[in-house]
Amino acid sequence: MSDGDDFDRALEAVLVRTMPAVKSLIEAERLSGGASQETYRLTVETESGSELLALRRAPGGEDPEDLMGRPGLAVEAELMRVAAANGVPEPQVHYVLEPDDGLGPGFIMEWLEGEALGARIVRLPELAEVRPRLAEEYGRILARIHAIDLDATGLRSKLTENPTEQFVQQMWDRYQEYPTPQPMIDYAARWLLDNLPPPRPLTLVHNDFRNGNVMVDANGVVAVLDWETAQIGDPGRDLGWLCTASWRFGSDLPVGGFGTREQLLAGYEAESGIAVDPEEVRFWEVFGSYWWAVGCIGMAEHYRTGPDNSVERPAIGRRTSECQVDCVNLLLPGVVDLLIPDVPDERSDMPRIDELLESVSDFLRGEVMDETSGRTNFLARVAANSLGIVAREAAVGPQLQELERSLLTVVLNDGAADSASTSAAGNLVADRLSSSASESSVSESSVSELRWALVERLRDGSMPLDQPGLAEYLRASVVNQVAIDQPRYQGLATALS
């Protein structure tokens, strides 16, 4: 069921039936963000006046056809209840939606006041005093989550068990289902499988514990949110994910943009008595960028297949280059030069493509954002950012294609003679490259075909990770791509420093 009168009526009926104090629904406002699930702020009329509640619901209110190992919203609600009973700050869950409610999967919970936007947590002056304490507090909370007894709580049978090697391979397999060759993702997968940390006892893992999924206020943590990907796995996953560069929001501090790894691990050890090797955290940082690089592509694919075709999803899809540049910085640091955008021909007919894009972007950032609020205001900003990507792609994209062709030619020719065969799943150009090391045959192929040839060799293991020219290609292509997709991303500055 989509938003509208029918949605409001069905929601009001549920609220009145399941919460005796509620007399009516005044408003259900969908909030910005939440690309994977919907979140609503509910204003209800009660005996003592108006109050706020929150609704978390599946996109479009539709049952997902494939949870991909996720526990589902009913189990998510149960996880929040169990976590609260074990000392983890959580909102109270009031009601879990049933199929007969007509609203799809979801649950109604307590509305809590606090800040959950990661960028604001990093920058708000009113949080300045608490920020230096957050990393240690997060470490203590993670230790409590990892200590939850899976058997006593009945959670073991409701969650997917995902050992580290299986987790890496699972994400690699998922990415390979998408029709896009992204060589840095394949390189990262190979590196992770070659550098697995020593096995540890598997625990409950939140799996998305980061700045942006933890609500805070001036006193500290208010609530841990978004348990939708929880699983049983290596607890290092949560520690490394919290340190992943995507969640630093422009800050140099590695833990969520507000703390140090030392503070995080000190809090974890103080609560759990378990010392964590920093090298394990680094492994999981690499995994975090790899995992989110695949997740971003999945968002773009979900835009194409529905049910939520919002402007937010393809924009998130382009963020895969941010994650890939973080992998470059962790695994392949080195010198790289940015391409210089083409200067528009001032003699060309008016208006030029850059002028058209700029005019629409200015309209979205100006008139539309000035006249809107909430989710519409947020999506207008997202749309304007997408137009910026298009403009930069037009200015530098052709040069990047030629640079990639040149660098891929070097990589593929140097490796072709040493490769006995390519995967049976390879495409025609990969087969051709296996049988001939001729530079001319490589240069005649499109950049997309060359990328496919490269990823097939990375996948079947016929190309070593130290292949001559491979690191240079990955650095140059990924860094220049993120300059198109998000030139203000901190990882780009790191790559160029």
Radius of gyration: 24 Å
- So what's the overall shape? globular
Order of helices and strands: HEEEHEEHHHHEEEEHHHHHHHHHHHH
Number of helices: 18
How much of the residues is beta strand, in percent? 5-15%
Mean pLDDT: 90
Helical amount: 40-55%
Count of DSSP strands:
9
Low-confidence stretches: 415-440
Tell me the distance between the termini. Answer: 50 Å
Structural class, by secondary structure, is alpha+beta
Major β-sheet, in short?
A: 5 strands, antiparallel
**Strand order, largest beta sheet:** 1-2-3-5-4
Question: What are the key terms here?
Answer:
single chain; 497 residues; alpha+beta; two-stranded antiparallel ribbon; 51% helix; 10% strand; globular
Fold and architecture overview:
By secondary structure, this protein is α+β, with helices and mostly antiparallel strands. Among the domains are: 111 residues, Phosphorylase Kinase, domain 1 (2-Layer Sandwich), CATH 3.30.200; 144 residues, no CATH class. It has 18 helices and nine strands. Strand 7 and strand 8 form a beta hairpin. Helix 5 runs parallel beside helix 9 and helix 12 runs antiparallel to helix 13. The protein is globular. The protein starts with a helix and ends with a helix.
Topology overview:
Blueprint: H1 5-18, E1 22-30, E2 38-46, E3 49-57, H2 73-85, E4 93-96, E5 106-110, H3 118-123, H4 131-146, H5 164-176, H6 183-194, E6 203-205, E7 214-217, E8 220-224, E9 231-233, H7 236-243, H8 261-272, H9 278-305, H10 312-317, H11 320-331, H12 353-371, H13 374-416, H14 428-435, H15 439-443, H16 447-460, H17 470-485, H18 490-496
Antiparallel strand pairs: 1-2, 2-3, 3-5, 4-5, 6-9, 7-8
Helix pairs in contact: 4-8, 5-6, 5-9, 6-9, 6-16, 7-9, 9-11, 11-17, 11-18, 12-13, 13-16, 13-17, 14-16
